[in-house]
Design goal:
The chain has helices at about 1-20, 25-35, 40-45, 55-95, 115-125, 140-145, 175-185, 225-240, 295-300, 315-325, 330-335, 335-340, and strands spanning about 130, 140, 165, 170, 190-200, 210-220, 245-255, 255-265, 285-290, 305-315. With about 350 residues, it is an alpha+beta fold. A seven-stranded mixed beta sheet has the order 1-5-6-10-9-8-7, sandwiched between helices. A three-stranded antiparallel beta sheet has the order 2-4-3. A hairpin with a 2-residue loop joins strand 7 and strand 8. The longest helix has about 40 residues, at about 55-95. The protein starts with a helix and ends with a helix. Bound molecules: phenylalanine (PHE). Phenylalanine (PHE) binds near residues 176, 287, 311 and 313.
């Protein structure tokens, strides 16, 4: 019996050495450790027979077993160190970075032409002492129409049909609503511009879009006249388009200005001679303007004996198209990068 156990121990030791030599991964190594040294392992199995040994033999075989265990543990430890090293090397070489490879080019975005022109318009007005105001796109009928002297059933509403959330809440059709919101809050002198998105039922074509942007302007102060309006428009047009640009104002009608004017600039395609784009007129309308109707000022408790004002509303897209020679407004909304990159 003693001899037998001793033989088994020697066998375990010899086998372990042989098997270890063939192990190449940490998983295999762990499986091997459990198989030989684990609770149900080969060594434990052999030691469970110790009870059958004579009292003198027990410590001798016990010691021999401990030696075998220590020997195998030591072997496993060295094997583990080697395997860890190899696995790390493998991992490092798999994750190796070739710094000589060409880089991946990053696609850089850039400002949309509408934002570029809007920023220039803002800068120009800020340099004249204006501040930038804003108002909501979902607006009350009161600010969009009523307070602008456009009562219900007024024909001026026909050209500005829009989406109604309820009888008195709608998508604003003009930034003129911000005129009212401003005069409610601020006492004159007032000098603001208010750029923003507006909505109308317009059919889409090369010059119309149901969503577009306006830049509203409002000045209320003592002694403001139509020539201040004309001067400001001239200045802004020259800043945006250069000294050669011509501006024109002609009589028009808006319920909230009196007198009212239509603002045009000379056509960018033909320079004023008349072409397909300006429908033979040589001029492109960019917005409306006028002297603030005293009725509006009175509604907001501004003394019309003391104060007068001018207002204008320009279509941002028209300015952008003029500036970049774009003859179809849809290009500004489609976000086709090929088009945007070509500018
Ligand atoms: N809100 C007018 C429009 O959308 C333009 C305008 C603004 C006219 C300010 C006069 C004064 O057509």
């Amino acid at each position: 019996m003693e001899i037998n156990i001793k033989e088994q121990l020697d066998l375990i030791r010899a086998d372990a050495e042989k098997e270890l030599a063939a192990i190449a991964s940490s998983e295999e190594l762990e499986a091997f450790r459990v198989k030989v040294l684990g609770k149900k392992g080969e060594l434990t199995k052999v030691l469970s027979q110790m009870g059958k040994l004579s009292a003198e033999m027990r410590p001798i075989i016990g010691q021999a077993a401990n030696e075998v265990r220590a020997f195998i543990e030591e072997k496993i430890k060295t094997a583990k160190e080697q395997i860890d090293k190899l696995e790390l090397e493998k991992k490092l070489s798999a994750e190796k970075l070739d710094v000589t490879l060409p880089g991946k080019a990053k696609r850089m975005g850039k400002k949309h032409p509408s934002s570029i022109v809007l920023d220039e318009v803002k800068d120009a007005f800020i340099s004249m002492g204006f501040t930038v105001a804003s108002g909501p796109e979902v607006e009350y009928d009161y600010y969009n129409f009523e307070a602008l002297n456009i009562p219900k059933y007024h024909p001026a509403r026909d050209t500005q049909d829009t989406f109604y959330f309820s009888d008195d809440i709608l998508l604003r059709t003009q930034t003129s609503s911000v005129q009212i919101r401003t005069m409610e809050k601020v006492k004159p002198p007032i000098r603001i511009i208010s750029p923003g998105r507006v909505y109308r039922i317009d059919e889409v074509d090369s010059t119309h879009s149901p969503i577009f942007h306006q830049i509203e302007g409002l000045v209320v102060d003592k002694g403001i006249t139509m020539s201040h309006l004309k001067g400001s428009l001239d200045l802004i047009a020259k800043k945006l388009f250069g000294e050669d640009i011509k501006t024109r104002i002609r009589p028009d009608y808006f319920p909230f200005t009196e007198p009212s004017a239509e603002i045009s600039i000379s056509c960018f395609k033909c320079g004023g001679e008349g072409c397909k784009f300006c429908k033979g007129e040589g001029w492109i309308e960019i917005g409306g303007a006028g002297m603030v109707n005293p009725k509006v000022l009175e509604l907001l408790n501004i003394d019309t004996e003391e104060y007068s004002g001018f207002a204008f509303g320009m279509g941002l897209e028209r300015l952008v198209m003029r500036r970049y020679n774009i003859d179809d407004i849809r290009m500004l909304f489609e976000n086709d990068v090929r088009f945007l990159e070509s500018l």
